């Protein structure tokens, strides 16, 4: 029954086929013809920018390919452009003049923040100008009373975190890449990260943006207001637009007060069926101090332990556990928070029909870190085990295990589940956000595995009304997969909106929309 | 110095004048010609809808003017349209067919929810068809695990609140009008209300919408996902569009777990200067359980007491108090919350340089309600005192008192502050949200008072980069004031977006954009 529900139905197959056909026919419309950067263009940029703000093989002090490479390649080495020219403006006015010129000359522009994205959104596809925001890194203002921070787009997330810390505030987002990702890039990709369950998405916490539109117009919506009902909330379009509508040059963002204390606990569950009632119980008992509820299936747990993570639970405690949950609290007073967490654990363990086999509460900061390391160590363990096909999807919480299991069965039915092909299918992720990381670990990347996985997984996601990209975005990597999560009506509207902002198609061409 | 900072500068005057001129010249472009509803149209609607879904003076069973009046008039009696025809569809498909027809025939459509708005957004200006969502009132689904509720647009907020209560969830918004306002209207006006400080705006809590576009196309973005980074977040445009881009027919919204306990305290402050450090202290000490921080100035307090609200503090305690603050907590465990609130009060009272004169903590539910009644009674007291000019503005927290005082001085300088003209100028509102309710109470509505207040107040708001409509919207009432809060670049983009969705201009004509 379950299998039937999540397998793509015939009618869906047809709907999707029609949708993809439509998408293809739309994309066969004559593409916008963009021009390459020439020496004249670089000479013009020299009249706008300081010499140190230009890295170009066409300038009078030509850059080497190596110098350009860090801007042309993404950090995982999957995407590589051939840009000849990188511009690093220092002011919004400079960005405006660059875009005005590129728009008139029909030169493509690829805005680039920390270049930490996962879908190739921040590197050029061909020879677009790379517009790096790295030199725009001033904090414009911080109001310790309201907690509103206004910062240039190129400010690094960690720098901002450090800046607000003495005022007892934190950034509403936190990412693994925080040491190099930039706030403008965070906003442009609508970064999710570890604090979303508690502080919500950037659509709620970003109060304003300053954007340079492709024709050079500066759109100043850099308000610091929490409430402003004066017309359409245009700034929202730039949150997650991946630089395809304009260049975000500054951001106004609401920073929450810092919690005074954090703690965590790992719970072993006899069955995935218990995850959902457990989530309800935990939400009810911990209420406003719950800050993470992370799921790790048994395969993921075993893999993390195999590849060196500390065993949080004894072998005996792990016996019979089908999956694990990591619960984190962040609150205003340590003794209250600990009392709540202790009571929760006691109630869970002494229940008539316990939802958990066992649980371990962190007793000190070292244990706190070690429990998180187990959860975060899954990624590393997967790389050590083999080659990984990774899917970052949003689906209903109730289908997490179902999707992992049915993917495994699907691969088995194709004869691909054995030592020389797929070694493991595992799931982990943010139950609280409905975000599952589905990993398929193989001995090697093989076309038959790829063909077995796609479009299979995208169809499963579509059938569950899920998202083929929960937090990473579309970039250059998933433009073909967009129809699995967005209807043709939505995609058509996106194209019309793109056309309103960027009629010449110079902004980050080839990203988001095909 | 302060006065100088918030008085409109000359350069601002010039900038605004230019902006208004531009706005006017744009509005002199030939307006879209819309047609009146005829008998043929009503006959066509009869082929789509059940007879009980049509209220029209042009139908075979003609409605009286009285029957139409409730749809033509807003509840405060300030706006009145002359619609002959009200349609009350029961399904999204019916809405689609109505809009398709109206779009082809160039008939204006005014979507109407509970008709509880404050800016005339939900009643027709001329004889547009009124499209009432009242018959679309089914709850489509509720997932008690994720807390995601999917409901027809016409569901009443209180009904939804009652529906999720047994699951220990609450709606993320709460309004005075909750007994009659509808969730589709809440979303279309981006309603703020009493819970914004705690749960954020609808831009964060609304996960998806179903919208019928003017040409009848159904845009299905009714996702229940917390995370979905697949292209532009188009649904955001409908949040706060006041029905000018399409008709919201269903909403998917995240409902938070219900708090287990609430409490409140009223604090008397010797000076407004103390409000801001107090806000910081309260945020730090109460952290995640702080759910309201409301400001009442002395004039507002005295007026509420004069007109019958219980005196929360003794005459002695009130002596020397320049303003008052109401703090509310909502948390997961009563004893913890009370301990935090008690400690806060003790720390405030025993500080070396106390920020407050005194404070009173509610000891039981009756006192809790009575403290809220004092805050909420200001509105009623103002109506009893005289005729009120009301401004719902967002400005930086630090300028709250300054704006109230400078408005009073401005009226005094015009010779209007005396018994036969302006009797009181007062301020109260949501410090936590930066939302000030500025009220000018007069003996009667007089043109010279109106002229002294506008554009003066709008200019002050503009100079502070504030919002001329924090939570009520623009509707029909404030289209002329939009340029004080939005730049011409923003307004031009809004017009282009309007044109993408509604090229024939049939949706709620005359609202938001002139």
UniProtKB/TrEMBL annotation, chains A, B:
Q: Which UniProt keywords apply?
A: FAD, Flavoprotein, Oxidoreductase
Any one GO CC term of this protein is: mitochondrion
Q: Which cofactor does it need?
A: FAD
Q: One Pfam annotation, family name?
A: FAD_binding_4
Domain FAD-binding PCMH-type: from-to ranges:
79-258
Family assignment from sequence similarity: Belongs to the FAD-binding oxidoreductase/transferase type 4 family.
> What protein am I looking at?
FAD-binding PCMH-type domain-containing protein
Q: Which organism is it from?
A: Ephemerocybe angulata
């Amino acid at each position: 029954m379950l299998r039937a529900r999540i397998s793509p139905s015939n009618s869906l197959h047809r709907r999707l086929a029609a949708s993809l056909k439509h998408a293809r026919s739309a994309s066969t419309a004559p593409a916008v013809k963009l021009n390459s950067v020439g020496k004249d263009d670089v000479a013009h940029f020299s009249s706008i920018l300081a010499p140190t703000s230009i890295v170009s093989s066409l300038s009078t002090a030509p850059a080497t390919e190596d110098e350009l490479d860090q801007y042309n390649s993404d950090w995982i080495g999957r995407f590589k452009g051939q840009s000849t020219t990188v511009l690093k403006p220092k002011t919004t006015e400079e960005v405006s003049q660059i875009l005005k010129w590129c728009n008139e000359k029909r030169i493509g522009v690829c805005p680039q923040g920390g270049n930490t994205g996962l879908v190739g959104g921040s590197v050029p596809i061909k020879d677009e100008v790379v517009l790096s925001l790295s030199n725009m890194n001033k904090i414009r203002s911080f109001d310790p009373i309201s907690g509103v921070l206004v910062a240039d787009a190129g400010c690094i997330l960690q720098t901002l975190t450090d800046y607000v810390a003495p005022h007892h505030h934190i950034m509403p987002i936190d990412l693994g890449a925080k040491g190099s990702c930039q706030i403008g890039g965070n906003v442009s990709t609508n970064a999710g990260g570890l604090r979303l369950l508690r502080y919500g998405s950037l659509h709620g916490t970003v109060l304003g943006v300053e954007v340079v539109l492709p024709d050079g117009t500066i759109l100043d919506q850099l308000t610091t207001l929490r409430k402003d009902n004066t017309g359409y909330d245009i700034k929202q379009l730039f949150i997650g637009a991946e630089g395809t509508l304009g260049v975000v040059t500054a951001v106004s963002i609401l920073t929450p007060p810092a919690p005074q204390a954090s703690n965590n606990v790992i719970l072993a569950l006899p069955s995935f069926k218990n995850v959902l009632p457990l989530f309800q119980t935990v939400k009810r008992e911990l209420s406003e101090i719950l800050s993470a509820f992370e799921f790790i299936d048994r395969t993921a747990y075993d893999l993390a332990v195999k590849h060196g993570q500390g065993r949080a639970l004894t072998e005996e405690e792990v016996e019979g556990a089908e999956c694990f949950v990591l619960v984190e609290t962040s609150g205003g007073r340590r003794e209250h928070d600990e009392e709540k967490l202790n009571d929760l654990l006691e109630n869970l363990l002494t229940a008539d029909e316990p939802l958990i086999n066992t649980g371990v509460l962190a007793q000190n900061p070292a244990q706190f870190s070690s429990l998180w390391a187990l959860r975060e160590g899954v990624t590393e363990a997967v790389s050590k085990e083999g080659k990984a096909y990774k899917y970052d999807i949003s689906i209903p919480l109730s289908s997490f295990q179902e999707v992992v299991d049915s993917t495994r069965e699907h691969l088995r039915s194709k004869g691909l589940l054995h030592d020389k092909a797929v070694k493991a299918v595992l799931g982990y992720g943010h139950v609280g956000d409905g975000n599952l990381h589905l990993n398929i670990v193989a001995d090697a990347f093989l076309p038959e595995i790829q063909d077995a996985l796609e479009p299979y997984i995208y169809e499963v996601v579509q059938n569950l009304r899920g998202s083929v990209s929960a937090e990473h975005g579309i970039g250059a990597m998933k433009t073909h997969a967009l129809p699995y999560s967005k209807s043709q009506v939505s995609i058509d509207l996106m194209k019309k909106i793109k056309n309103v902002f960027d009629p010449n198609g110079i902004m980050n061409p080839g990203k988001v929309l095909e």
